[in-house]
Every structure is written in structure tokens, then in C-alpha cells.
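Lecture 7 notes: from sequence to structure.

We start with a single chain of 183 residues. Read the sequence below before looking at the structure.
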Amino acid sequence: MIIQNLKLYKTPKGFRGKSAIIVQLWWMVQGTLFGMSPQFLYGWRRFLLRIFGAEIGKNVIIRPSVRITYPWKVKIGDFSWIGDDVVLYSLGDIVIGSNTVVSQKSYICTGTHNYTKEDFPILAKKIIIEDECWLATDVFVSPGVTIKTGTVVGARSTVINDLESNSVYVGSPVRFIKKRKIE
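Now the structure, written as C-alpha cells:
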């Protein structure tokens, strides 16, 4: 009995959201003009992302080592920071609010496969990280998750379910630790 037959797999028409030429052009720009730009050229990287359809707010800091699969599926609010080696695997939409930090080596993953079907179809599920959140280093966020306003996720955590607002979570999978209080 075959339970997974990749010979049957087909990427759905229009799944990437742009033509193959635009996708390849972005990947070339990301590997050169974006990825090789000096650290301090935040405005340049915002400009490049906007050219490719990303909605990027005011004074967003995006490091040159950030990897974004499809920028036209990404929206980032004002004054947010995206750290070194972050991956925005934007097969589906990624919405990051204002004043939010996604720290280094975090992986925001909107793509998955339906493993219950023989043709292993690809799925894209939107991720929302609301305003004033902080994802510490090396956090993994699963497809379809919403992280509510003011939430902190500790280093090396795995987020597989929605997280409540103004809370602190750690672990793999994450567990609630306490409410976030500002002094």
C-alpha cells in the first residue's frame, strides 16, 4: 500500500502568486542587491521589498541575511525589527504588526503538506504576529498560527497553536509561563 506517492504531486496553479519569471527575479535580487547590501541600508531593503509587493511600514529594520520566499505575501507594520537569518517562508500570507521583533534565526513557516492524502498536496496557511510582540532567537512558528498583541515567545520555542495577548511563553511546544507586565 502506497501512502505517499510524490509522482502524483502537483503545485496548484497560481500558488506562488506571481509568474515564474517574477519569482526568479526576486530570488536573484534577494541573493545580490538585498543580501549583499551593507547592514545599515535598511531603507534600501525596504525599497526592494516594496518593489516586489511587500507592504513594509515606516522605519522597519530588516537585516540583509533575512530570507523571504515571496515578498508580495508579506506585510510588516511600523517600527518592527526582523533579525539576522530570519526566514519568512511566505507560501501563504505573513502579517507582522507594528513594534514587533522577530529575532535572529527564527523561522516563520506558512507552508505545509497534507500528509493524509496520497498526492501530498501543498498547503499555505496565513500567520499573524500582532503588534508589540517579541519572538526571541530561533523561534519556529507553524502554519496558521496567530500570536496576539504584546506576547513574548522565549528562545528556541516552537509555536503550534495560537497564543493569547500580553503573555509569556517558552518551550517546544510552547507553554504559558505568566502574563507580561510592563513597569
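Helices lie at 20-34, 42-51. Keep this in mind for problem set 3.
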